[in-house]
Design a protein that fits this description.
718 residues, single chain, two-stranded antiparallel sheet, Rossmann fold, 25 helices
Length: 718
Amino acid sequence: MVHYVYSRWDGTQDVDLSSEQIIDELSEQILEGGDLSSVLRRMMRHGADLPQGRRMMGLEELRSRLRAARERNLEQYDLSSMFDDLAERLEDILAKERGGIGKRLDEMAPPASPAASPSGDAPEGTAAQPGAPGEQSGQGQSTGQGQGQSTGEPGDTSLEDLFRRLAEKRLEQLDALPSNVGGRIKELRDYDFMDPEAREQFEELLQMLQQQVLQNYFKGLQQGLENMTPEQLREVSQMVTDLNKLIQQKLSGVEPDITEFMSKWGHMFPEGIETFDQLMEHMQQQMAQMQTLLNSMPPEMREELNAMMEGLLRDHRLQWDLFELAQNMERLNPGSMTDQNRFMFSGDDPVTLQEALRLMGDMNSLEELEDQLRDAIRSNDAGRVDTDEVGRLLGEEAKHYAEELQALTKQLEEAGFIQRKGQGWELTPQAIRKIGEKALKTIFSRMHEGRFGDHDRERTGIGIEQIDETKPWVFGDPFHLNALKTVTNAVIREGPGTPVHIRPEDFEINQTHGMSQCSTVIALDMSASMMWSGYFQAGQRVGLALDTLIRTKYPKDNVTVMAFSYFVLPLKSTMLLDTYWVEYGGGTNFQEVLRQARLLLARQGGITKQIVLITDGQPTTYNAPSGGDGLSEGWEERMWRRGRGGYGVFEATLREVVRCTKDNITINTFMMAGDPGLMDFVRLMAKTNRGRAFIADPTQLGTYVVADYVNMRNKVIR
């Protein structure tokens, strides 16, 4: 006993679409009236619901997920909070500096009292602090107790007074700092910290910000320049200088060779960059994050970030080097550095500068990925969609669906269902046969055994001659089973051994040769009313099914399809699955299609000749000959005349019906309209020709046409 366990798909299960599933869905949609190009475009764009509840996601659904992800980010994050974390860290540093200054001042002796005695003795209750910086009184002589004592020289300034004045100046500088983060960082770069721990914390903050900002430009910095020392900043500056030289070469018309550059600086860039264009594309993507961040900020925040950047990157010309790089890239690709996105964030979740830069990168990537999907929808080709980016931004499930779309045409091509035709695709003969078989199977499934069961019963007797040729059995074939071939097919499929398991696909039947031959012309009305009502699409399916039936079950018979409106167009089987050739308007010309069908049937021969006319109305146009009896003239020698059901149209059409009747051609008309007025002329045609007229619903048209043909054919070959 086999047990099945079901669980939610988590991206690890193998749920790949099979070629058969795709082909079945494609066939179904083509039979519903679409051509290959439109059906592929629809599947690529909107996906498809497949058997067993399987869903194939389309490009539009992926695009909707991208938009939803972008909206979630905009509604979640608060860009104005970007400096909050930095502001807190700066406050801690400033508090540390103020506390250090205050502690040093507290450790000093208080300044000398103005009431000190002329002899320099300290006031009562006050003792000097040996060894501490400070001013000592006395007879102009040093006490020798510590290096901070005065020299006794006239005008000498004590170290304590110096320190106090210096401390006051530092505190004034701190009080005068701007309130915004960018301005504070810029001013503190020139500030001489008095507290060593505060100085160390500020240097660490600078290194972190420098690394985060430069990481936005050069991905390798996180591994290669972790500490961001002055020497490493100079290295970055030299790399940017070399990069600017490459761009200058390109601007001067010389194609740059980046081999030496990447050999020297490749550790600052991701793997896979081999050409100058790839290098520029990477730099543009990275620098776009900062530009997008600036564009998305209000003016005051933008000024604050610019001030911070000036404070971070002023070392060793780095700020100028990056400015020059941006200018060069703008000259190389005008608009690339200015026409960046602008996002309006309205959420509450705070972000740091590093998170904001990463968020800008993701938002830009979402925009670029949507552009890829838009191009894929327009070109009907998902090959250029970056599935890795889809997975990173939308998850593994979306990546899996994107990969399925990329493999769609490849699977169909490898299965022999489609093949290249110029820039597009076309159905193969194998595909046309399969779609025809599907249409035929659908029609047979609607036939009731008691009413239309003769189509698959074995017929023997006069008129049937068995021949040595065999063929694979297909649905609808008489079951003249060739046991030897059938068992051989099963052994080839399974390999030697017993028992031999025979499947339907192993069946091989003896072909029979009918001593009679039937020639059929399917005349399919493509007038405007047929197109607008959907009757034409139903007629296409029936024409394909009947064409498949005759070619597979009655291979000695002849079948031709002609589409007609005011003119006649003979069709190949492949054209029944497309509509590019349809040209309606100008009326419905029964006379000309009957004339051309009659001439064709006369050339083909056969005991039984028939015209299957599929229409929804009566004739409205005809062709009048320029001379003679009008039986052999070409189109260019005939004059088209238009009527609205008048005597001339009916008379010309009935004349052709009479000619068909004299040539023993049966005209069976299938009407897809129930208007009694429209049926009058069709009944007249049937009475004149001794053919038949059917009123057929479009959904049952195939059952009527195919069943009628099978019954007629079985009567012929008994």
